[in-house]
Amino acid sequence: MQIRCQNCHKPYAIGKEEVHAALDLMAAQDLHHYDTQCPHCRRANHVSHDELLRAAPDWKKPTEAAES
Ligand SMILES: [Zn+2]
């Protein structure tokens, strides 16, 4: 998914594997956003759960995946 850094305003991408890992982490820890690090300025950018879900619509919560 594409992210625009809130600090330096440069765009950068995070891969689908990282998006899935982030969603897994958020489900496990009941988080509402995830911090990604800008590769240009090293500042953290918050990404909301909804934004991550839009980038990985096939992701399922671990519990839901186990039930289906
Ligand atoms: Zn930046």
What does this structure look like?
By secondary structure, the chain is an alpha+beta fold. The protein has one domain (2-58). It contains 3 helices and 4 strands, in the order E-E-H-E-E-H-H. The chain has helices spanning 16-29, 49-55, 62-67, and strands at 2-4, 11-13, 33-37, 44-48. The strands form 2 sheets. It has a two-stranded antiparallel sheet with strand order 1-2. Helix 1 runs antiparallel to helix 2. The longest helix is centred in the first third of the chain and has 14 residues, at 16-29. The model has no long low-confidence stretch (mean pLDDT 92). Zinc ion (ZN) binds at residues 5, 7-8, 10, 38, 40-41, 43.
List the helices and strands and how they pair.
Elements lengths: L1 E3 L6 E3 L2 H14 L3 E5 L6 E5 H7 L6 H6 L1
Antiparallel strand pairs: 1-2, 3-4
Helix pairs in contact: 1-2
The site of zinc ion has 8 residues, from loops.
